[in-house]
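Sample entry (174 residues):
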Amino acid sequence: MCPARAAFQVEEEINTLRQVLSAKERHAAELKRKLGLSPLNELKQNLTKSWQDVQTTNAYVSASATLDDIAHSEAYKKTQETLSQAGQKTSAALTTMSSAISRKLGDMRVLPFSNSFSSHYSIRHSISMPAMRNSATFKSFEDKMGNLKYKVVGPRGDESPADSATPTQENPPF
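Predicted structure, serialized as tokens:
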């Protein structure tokens, strides 16, 4: 048999097998459709089966037992309680600070400005003006923010005792 003829026959067999495979895939898809199996359902089933397989491995069982031991330890419970309390206190502090900032900004908004401002200046431009900066509201806000920073950061080790006093408008911490 000639090599060209043999190659031709192999190509015909490959094409025939492709057609048979395609027909079987269509038939399988039709059966799955009739049974109510969609690709999504198959994926769900495969994931469920894989997860069950993972859960039965020695590594998973060992790790799960270790995590259970940690979760029931006294140190874990104390850490969880401490972090929970810290989160609650931080949330309360941020809420209070947010309210104070909103109230102070509202107070600053109602302050009369000079008529020399043109209408296209925003309050952001006005804050840099000396009249706004020297207002009692701004000074009070600045003092409170300085005091808050002092409470959070504390006195710096490289400052003299006179410098580390509670910050004021004359002695800002920034």
